[in-house]
Design brief:
Elements lengths: L1 E5 L2 E9 L2 E6 L13 E5 L2 E6 L1 H14 L1 H12 L4
Antiparallel strand pairs: 1-2, 2-3, 4-5
Helix pairs in contact: 1-2
C-alpha cells in the first residue's frame, strides 16, 4: 500500500509491503499516479500498476499459500530494509 510520497522526488513513494516499508519508483504510473492508501503491484522496486484492495488481498493470500518460499522471501525483504 502506498503510504506517502518522498518530498522533492515526484517519482518515488514509500510503501508498506507486508509490514516492511520501502521506497519504490512510481514513475511508470505517471498517467494514473497512485494516492496514499491505494494499492500497487510492485516488481523489483517499480510500481507496475494500481490494483484495488480485493486484488491486493487475493494476491497476498496466494503468496501466503505458497508457504515457506513466501516466508523466506519476506524475511529476506525485512533484513534488507532500505529507507
Amino acid at each position: 500500500m502506498v503510504l506517502e510520497f518522498v518530498p522533492g522526488q515526484p517519482d518515488l513513494a514509500k510503501v508498506d509491503v507486508s509490514g516492511v516499508r520501502r521506497v519504490i519508483n512510481i514513475g511508470l504510473l505517471a498517467d494514473d499516479m497512485p494516492e496514499p492508501g491505494e494499492w500497487v503491484l510492485i516488481h523489483v522496486g517499480f510500481a507496475l500498476s494500481k490494483i484495488d484492495e480485493a486484488e491486493a488481498a487475493a494476491s497476498l493470500a496466494f503468496l501466503q499459500g505458497i508457504g515457506q518460499s513466501y516466508e523466506d522471501e519476506l524475511k529476506a525483504l525485512q533484513e534488507s530494509r532500505i529507507e
